[in-house]
Write a structure and sequence with these properties.
Blueprint: E1 3-8, H1 12-15, H2 18-26, E2 31-36, E3 48-51, E4 57-60, H3 68-80, E5 99-103
Parallel strand pairs: 1-2
Antiparallel strand pairs: 1-3, 3-4, 4-5
Length: 105
Amino acid sequence: MSTVATICASCPAGRAGLAVTVRERLEPLGVTVRETDCMSGCARPSTLAFRATGKVTYLFGEITEADLPEIETFARLYMASADGAFPDARVLGGLRLKAIARIPG
């Protein structure tokens, strides 16, 4: 089951090239990093989504390069989880405050 991280290319961080940096950090972990034109997260721009077949999908907003260590940690935990759900959001670190949506798998 492959994990995909998608970055909004039209958000400020996307236009600044965040996808390149995220790709460099996550692809060695086994995460495919993609860009898309718009993820409709404009109220909290610079969005990043994580999804995998059969798992909860997460959408985060207001992502910056400062979030990269927590994004890496999240990616590892997400890939190790059977369903992508976490009973305690504290494992997400500061990303839990940037969560826009958690969509059932």
